[in-house]
């Protein structure tokens, strides 16, 4: 298999991991920190964790998706385009799910980062769709005929 295919599969894995860790963090924040057994400072909990999850999961996944696109943009590939579209679907669906969880989060955990993260990444899934569709529409160049 080609390198681009494996990079596309790796980007899907990172995108799924990002959706899973962000949704699990949002579900963890349902409990009020004042009644919890764990000593958690809500002011210094959500923002650093979300930034850590972004740097560990979605940044490498985006880089892998971009490299897969760059490697296959000249000859086009329906497989790689489909993988990029799956990346966009995973990100859009997962962040839509996280957006529904915001209403249940305890009040001390609500910060600007918690509120803006799902819509931001839902918006970032649109360029991923665009590049996936663009990659699927690229036609392979015909070989030039040598007449002489």
Helix amount, in percent?
55-70%
Rg over C-alpha atoms, rounded to the nearest angstrom: 20 Å
Instruction: Give the uncertain stretches in residue-range form.
Output: none
Find the count of extended strands (DSSP E, 2+ residues): 0
Termini distance? 36 Å
Gross geometry? elongated
The helix/strand order is HHHH
Number of domains: 1
Structural class of the helix and strand makeup? Answer: mainly alpha
Transmembrane segments: 7-30, 50-71, 83-102, 114-135
Keywords: Membrane, Transmembrane, Transmembrane helix
Describe, in plain words, how this protein is organized in 3D.
With 148 residues, the protein is mainly alpha-helical. Helix content is 70%, strand content 0%. The protein has four helices and no strands. It has helices spanning 3-28, 46-72, 78-101, 112-137. The longest helix is centred in the middle third of the chain and has 27 residues, at 46-72. The protein is elongated and about 85 Å long. The chain starts with a helix and ends in an 11-residue tail after the last helix. The model has no long low-confidence stretch (mean pLDDT 87). Keywords: Membrane, Transmembrane, Transmembrane helix. The chain crosses the membrane at residues 7-30, 50-71, 83-102, 114-135.
Tag the structure with descriptive keywords.
elongated, 148 residues, 0% strand, mainly alpha, 70% helix, 4 helices
